[in-house]
């Protein structure tokens, strides 16, 4: 299913205007496992399988950009066991999926503050980003140690440094300038943000970028989320009227 995105005022991908960008807050892994009496990490593992299936289905769903919230700046509060388990899972996903991503034309990027991740994971991230840099069929971005406020803080610091260095002036700073200093500088704004598991909050995800995104909240827990679930959500999204501050024409 494909969508007409005419009249989209958000930042667009100039190379492919109209390309659909869907962002997902993948929530509910822990509850999915706990409902079955299993450790939370089993839910995260099942969740990773769901990611693979969804990425594979993106071309058929008409999704060119898929951005997934995998670990927030607040998720460090969880037990050491869960945090380490998740980090291991991210590394394993990169290693195991590398060939498939290359075959399927998936470009993988990471957003978030990677400097707090361990050195091996940082090296793996640099490697997979370089390995898939030429791919253009599906742009997969994974938000790891990502927080919208943290991203804005880091962008502000970088802008202030450039002003001090004389390469940027206060007058030059516009909406577009700020977008260029964010981790998402190479991505169009999301059209749609989906959150699974029935929670109806944003939890610090893409605060700046989602200014005009549509939101869909589904009760489905992430480990139960299939490409068909996404297909149903996209059908509903396609008939929504996006006004971007204007009036109905
Ligand atoms: C989302 O599932 C995955 C991460 C935040 C890493 P949760 O782990 O938050 O699952 P629930 O919300 O506890 O069910
Ligand atoms: C949001 O889920 C972060 C991710 C999905 C990675 P959380 O489960 O961490 O969010 P809260 O705590 O319910 O707000
Ligand atoms: Mg949660």
Automatic annotation (TrEMBL):
Subunit organization: Homodimer.
Protein name: Isoprenyl transferase
Transmembrane segments: none
Cited SUPFAM superfamilies: Undecaprenyl diphosphate synthase
Molecular function GO terms recorded: transferase activity
Entry EC no(s): 2.5.1.-
Positions annotated to bind Mg(2+): 27, 214
Signal sequence extent: none
Annotated binding of substrate, by residue: 28-32, 40, 44, 72-74, 76, 78, 195, 201-203
Keyword Disulfide bond: no
Keywords, alphabetical: Magnesium, Metal-binding, Transferase
Enzyme class: transferase
Cofactor note: Binds 2 magnesium ions per subunit.
Cofactor annotation: Mg(2+)
InterPro entries in UniProt: UPP_synth-like (IPR001441), UPP_synth-like_CS (IPR018520), UPP_synth-like_sf (IPR036424)
Protein's organism: Roseinatronobacter alkalisoli
Active site per the UniProt annotation: 27, 75 (proton acceptor)
Gene, per the UniProt record: uppS
């Amino acid at each position: 299913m494909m969508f007409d995105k005419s009249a989209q005022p958000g930042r667009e991908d100039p190379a492919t205007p109209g390309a659909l960008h869907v962002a997902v807050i993948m929530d509910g892994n822990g509850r999915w496992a706990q409902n079955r009496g299993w450790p939370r990490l089993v839910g995260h593992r099942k969740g990773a399988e769901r990611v693979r299936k969804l990425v594979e289905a993106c071309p058929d769903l008409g999704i060119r950009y898929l951005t997934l919230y995998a670990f927030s700046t607040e998720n460090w509060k969880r037990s050491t066991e869960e945090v380490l388990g998740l980090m291991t899972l991210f590394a394993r996903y990169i290693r195991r999926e590398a060939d498939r991503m290359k075959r399927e034309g998936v470009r993988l990027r990471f957003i978030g503050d990677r400097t707090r991740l361990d050195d091996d994971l940082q090296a793996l991230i640099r490697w997979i980003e370089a390995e898939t840099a030429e791919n253009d069929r599906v742009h997969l971005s994974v938000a790891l140690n990502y927080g919208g406020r943290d991203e804005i803080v880091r962008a502000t610091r970088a802008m202030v440094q450039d002003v001090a260095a004389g390469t940027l002036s206060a007058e030059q700073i516009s909406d577009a300038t700020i977008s260029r200093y964010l981790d998402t500088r190479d991505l169009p704004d999301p059209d749609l943000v989906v959150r699974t598991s029935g929670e109806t909050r944003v939890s610090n995800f893409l605060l700046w970028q989602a200014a005009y995104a549509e939101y869909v909240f589904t009760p489905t827990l992430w480990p139960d989320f299939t490409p068909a679930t996404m297909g149903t959500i996209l059908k509903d999204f396609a008939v929504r009227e996006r006004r971007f501050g204007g009036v109905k024409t």
